[in-house]
TrEMBL record:
It is found in: Cell membrane. Keywords: ATP-binding, Cell membrane, Membrane, Nucleotide-binding, Transport. Belongs to the ABC transporter superfamily. PROSITE patterns: ABC_TRANSPORTER_1, ABC_TRANSPORTER_2. It is a peripheral membrane protein. The lineage of its organism: Bacteria, Bacillati, Bacillota, Bacilli, Bacillales. One of its GO terms (molecular function) is ATP binding. It comes from the Bacteria. This is Oligopeptide transport system ATP-binding protein. Residues 8-258 form the ABC transporter domain. It holds the Pfam family ABC_tran. It comes from Shouchella xiaoxiensis.
Length: 328
């Protein structure tokens, strides 16, 4: 992929939450870029910090959140903007698709009204006729059949897949340059999931939209991503192109995730699982956070947090044992 100036540059971002006298840091020193037209997947177990990272970028966290570092979108540090300035960017320059559309769509409003609301805010000079036409165009763009009739329906009258398509239509209403998709296919059946992934990929290729795709499902990552960030306990532990990640994973956590993927091999009916449980984010173990669950762990792993080092060309891993062939 030809390198441009990054559309999004996240540098040394940490996100903490204050609860009474206790402060918990759930995202720690995260850095990555997204190029125009690139799909970057962030993968990890629940509680790894991937969703908080996306909400930090969008400016959608609660008031008790504190973000340090820089989040530069199109040359502008979002953390220096006022709330009003961030709101103007959301929906126009950058949009987000959420995991469960029924909790994001207003059950009391028809589909056309919910799309029209976004257009009215960001395109105040448009006429009612223009907004109506754009609404139909958007529903058509996301492959919704009979868009005129669908526009008149309420969310509960649509299937889960159709509701997710509506969410994507709303996110695309103002042709954003950056799209963040937070587990957009989790609640969908396999067939609908494949259709939604194909739709996002098509829109990405057609419009040159930069995409941050958040998921816990590596099979989804394999089908859609250009580059992958693996997160564990709030930190990025591996970064690589999607091909390199699956072909030569460097971090034991990534290897564990890949080995836990179901296959078509009927002779092996049991799935491999990573031993233990993710750590309490407020009480992380010393050194490498993964060492209590790691088959490669040595005493050195408990001493300090390893750096995210380049282990091979454009392939980074946060592990002191990553290039030991004996344990590869």
């Amino acid at each position: 992929m030809k390198q441009h100036k990054p559309l999004l540059s996240v540098e040394n971002v940490s996100t903490s939450f204050q609860a009474g006298k206790q402060q918990s840091t759930v995202v720690k020193d995260v850095s990555f870029t997204v190029q125009p037209g690139e799909i970057v997947a962030i993968v990890g177990e629940s509680g790894s910090g991937k969703s908080v990272t996306s909400l930090s970028i969008m400016g959608l966290l609660k008031k008790n959140a504190q973000i340090t570092g820089s989040i530069v979108y199109n040359g502008q540090d979002l953390l220096t903007l006022t709330n009003k300035q961030r709101r103007l960017l959301r929906g126009s320059e950058m949009s987000m698709i959420f995991q469960e559309p029924m909790s994001s769509l207003n059950p009391m409003l028809r589909i056309r009204s919910q799309i029209a609301e976004v257009l009215t805010i960001h395109q105040p000079s448009w006429t009612k006729k223009q907004i109506t036409q754009k609404t139909i165009d958007l529903l058509t763009q996301v492959d919704i059949p009979n868009p005129e009739q669908t526009a008149l329906r309420f969310p509960h009258q649509l299937s889960g897949g159709m509701r997710q398509r509506v969410m994507i239509a709303i996110a695309l209403a103002c042709d954003p340059k950056l799209l963040i998709a937070d587990e957009p296919t989790t609640a969908l059946d396999v067939t609908t999931q494949a259709q939604i992934l194909s739709l996002i990929k098509t829109l990405n290729e057609k419009n040159g939209t930069g995409v941050v795709f958040i998921t816990h499902d590596l099979s989804v990552v394999a089908s859609i991503a250009d580059r992958v960030l693996v997160m564990y306990a709030g930190r990025i532990v591996e970064e690589a192109t999607v091909f390199d990640l699956f072909d030569q994973p460097k971090h034991p956590y990534t290897i564990g995730l890949i080995e836990a993927m179901p296959t078509l091999d009927t002779e092996n009916e049991s799935l491999n699982a990573i031993a233990g449980n993710p750590p309490n984010i407020a009480k992380l173990p010393s050194g490498c956070s993964f060492h209590p669950r790691c088959p490669w762990a040595t005493d050195a792993c408990t001493e300090k947090v390893p750096a995210l080092d380049e282990k091979s060309a454009n392939h980074f891993a946060r592990c002191i044992h990553a290039n030991k062939e004996a344990i590869k």
